[in-house]
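Students often ask why we bother predicting the structure of a whole assembly rather than each chain alone. The short answer is interfaces. A chain on its own may look different once its partners are present, and contacts between molecules only exist in the joint model. In this exercise we take two input lines together and write out one structure for the complete complex. Read the inputs first and try to guess which parts will touch.
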Amino acid sequence: MLRVPLNQMLAVIILSLAVGLFTNIIRPDRIPLLAEEMAGAEDLDQVSGEPAAITLAQAKQLFDDDVVFVDARDDENFNDGHIKNAWKSGFFMELMFILDSLQSKENPVVIYCSDDECGSSRELADDLYNEGFTKLFVFKGGWLEWNDAGYPVE
Amino acid sequence: MKNDLKNLLVMVCRIFLGFMFIYASLDKIAHPEEFAKQIGYYKALPFGLENLLAIILPWAELIMGICLIAGLLVDGAALVSIIMMLVFILAISQAMLRGIDITCGCFKVSADSEKLGLDTIIRDIVFLVMSFIVLNRQERKFEFLPKSD
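Now the answer. The structure tokens for the assembled complex follow.
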């Protein structure tokens, strides 16, 4: 018969809770207990710093301005259809070097994945931000919203 | 002889899981913000709870690792390990089924961390079986709290 040592399990959990919360209070790089949503970009020209979320209308405006779009979904989804002229994310280092060689790190880049329920666009934006890119937009509505709106795809 | 082999297997599982948990905890403890983001990419938790998990989970891993190696609260650590592995397998599976193409964040939180894949799930199943072996052990060798039988 398998043991179910609830008291010991509780001891491990309570100890972890106590140590985790205590160290988070005293460390200088503490984080809030609850995460905040990514901030939206109110003015596309002003944004410079951490990745910002954009709406469908803002994404279309940037698309019309020939801003680079990067598709953060896997190869299979990308090959099934993507925003016109969007780049495949592929290997991160490869993408970073191509982006870096073709345009300045201060130039805008739009990153998207399927919709608001996929985290890959946010991850790619954070990774590029950590590499020094400063004008990153995450189109949260992603492929589904773009395709539903009937905007250019290929 | 058979019991010796069983005890040896339990010890190997205990030590391996212990060091694995300690190793897995270190980068997450050092970079809580990055780890919270990593959890967020899975899109599996509501209300911004990824931060709370990022604050507690790495310490739970560290404490479990120490417990397993040092022979303290081994039953509790093994049970938490089983629950943790089941949750990890579920979280990874749902992300893969939804086509979320992200890195695992299992051991490292940096961009060069491994991508989610079937191998990640298989690895967690192996850890799950090892945790069961530890919890289901017949004899308590080198355990100090609670006292050995």
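Check your guess against this: Chain A is about 40% helix and 10% strand.
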